[in-house]
Amino acid sequence: MLDHVGLSVSDYAKSKAFYDAVMPSIGASCIMAVTAEETGGTYEGAGYGSAGKPSFWIGTGGRSTGQVHIAFTAPNRAAVDAFYAAAMAAGARDNGGPGLRPHYHPDYYAAFVLDPDGHNIEAVCHKPE
């Protein structure tokens, strides 16, 4: 249903460094970046995804208001663990370490961190062990 989603961030360089460090753990990377000159204005952004398609964007414009929750699909539970470790090493704040969340369903394995702007960022795997 969604093609892509974007967050405005308060410190583009800091957030880009954070997501550059975290996204490879779930098989994604920065697919493209655009400059203010390219967009014809003041917007600068980076798009993350896989297979050549960015589906998650961060960009200038000031912090998005209110806390946003973004959940990224992880290919397996080890990737959820790697996501959490990479996020914590990149300066995230813990918002729920890796583990099963059976109140969602028996195989819901996820980790939650707060990104540089305080958004609740999750990696989740729905597969059994």
Automatic annotation (TrEMBL):
Pfam families per the UniProt record, alphabetical: Glyoxalase
Q: Which residues form the signal peptide?
A: none
Chain ranges of the VOC domain:
1-126
Read off the InterPro entries from this record.
Glyas_Bleomycin-R_OHBP_Dase, Glyas_Fos-R_dOase_dom, VOC_core
Protein name listed in UniProt: VOC family protein
Domain of life per record: Bacteria
Q: Which organism is it from?
A: Ciceribacter ferrooxidans
PANTHER family recorded: GLYOXALASE FAMILY PROTEIN (AFU_ORTHOLOGUE AFUA_5G14830)
